[in-house]
Fold this protein.
Amino acid sequence: MALDSIISKDAAESPVSDVGSLSWLTSLLGILWPKLNESLASLIHDKVTPQLQHALPSPFKGAHFSRFTLGSGVPSYGEIEIVQRSSNSVQVEMDMALSTDADILLDLGVGGICFGVRKIRVSGRLCIALKPLLSRLPLVGAVQVFFAAQPKLEMRFAGLAAIAEIPGLERKLHSMVEDLLRNSIVLPNAKTIQLAKDDQVPNWVEAYCHQPIGAIRVQVLWARNLAGTNWQMGQANQFSSDPYCLLRLGTSSTRTSTVRGTTSPTWPGTEPAAYFPVYHLDQELEIEVHDEGGGFLDRNTRFVSFLGRVQATRVRHLISAAAEAGRCERHFVLDTTKVNSSMLHVNDPVNLGVPSELQLVVEWANICDTACPDRLPELMTAAGARGGASDDLLMVELHAGDGFPEECLEKGLRWRCSWKGSQEFPVTSHRGNPRTEQPDYDGLPMGLRKNKALMEVIDRLAKRGESIYDIGAVINFPPDVVLQYLKARNEFDRRVRARQQRDRFCLEVQWHQTLPLALPSSPSAQLIIELLEGEAVIGVLDSAVLGERLRAGRALERQRLKLV
């Protein structure tokens, strides 16, 4: 197996923007909505149903959606903003809201247990990126569709008696849909539609990857007045927890260490901070506080594991206070409304109405010197001048590789970059997508190139031994066009057979993503790039070449590296 990779520095030009109305898009979607419903039904069958069957207990492995339609409601939009971030890209941004009376019926596959979803509400910041811009048709290399941050999701269920048969099912379904959105169309993930041919774009990373504009580093300092999950009868004011924090931004997440036996923990100053690449200033940082000992119903049960959360906070709001110094401390009051307060001591701070608090240190580092001057010019300039979270960043571009076994795609193939001998948190890519070969039909007339039904007619007639003249008369195209199609089709079949003979059951997989990695404080730290199947490490790139170039302070040009 091999991977094309490159390590380099990058920058972006200053963006310009304009604002306008988008009422015409709502009307257009009203026309396209029936087709979108059909497409979503196919997605549910292919993607969601297998995940649901895997997540449910064994008696419900036959669960499936017997009906799925989002109803007649179409999304509504706020003002549209056109942002040109560079000479090679244009981005359309808008606030989107969908509220529709859905008709979704889930059959659990046993005992006739069914329930439905009757209302769905989704809202968020929707972005459409056109990049790279080309000087010849089709003018745009690809179109990317994504949400800047996790969209807000609300689902109303029907058949509540059926849901009650399986405790936690409603929460599981809601969480699964949120994860599906996060892992498919929430930054840094996006739905990419390629418009240009492979040879028209020199670097497809520019089309498939949303380049990071900066990096944010977050360190949890302390918390106060957390819920006490460990207490005993007769000890009125003696309760404690073993708290830790979960931090997430986009698809990157990490957790702090656990501080034992306290409701007012202070985390060690030597603990490494959480490090997140930032692709859009409207991305949101999510923080939850948990107790490590909760969750099991036995005599040692603490009954409560969730201790509170920080309301999702946009990066622009997090770093606005860092404009003066490049870093700042932020204070938050936790939302404890979902804490199981009925199982806490009567004198617990949460039951007494005492706010639970969390203190953070936030640092910002620019990757692009003028990432968003139209929005936070003074912040970006000040933070960039002071170096922010890091004096330097290493940019690792992941392109594509071949020779990957087909069965590995089920759990997903991702790359993880880290420093051996350093406490810096690693960064991980999204899942790779198999590259699908397509025949080269560019020389054919448009009426044939876009008509799969006519192509199938040609294939069937040619298989029966009909001449190109007879086939041309049937489909109303000249014989030389029929011959051109058959040659292109035969050449495609030959390439596929050759690849299958060379790499049986192996695929070419592409990532087209840039991972920013903070340079370590230790000069002896070694760059490690690992291949993950699910969460398991199945290979490591040869680090000897990487280390030699990095020690010399040089960029590593794009090249193929072996996986060991």
Observations:
- The chain is about 25% helix and 35% strand.
- The two ends are 8 Å apart (CA to CA).
- The first helix runs from residue 23 to 55.
- The chain has a mean pLDDT of 76.
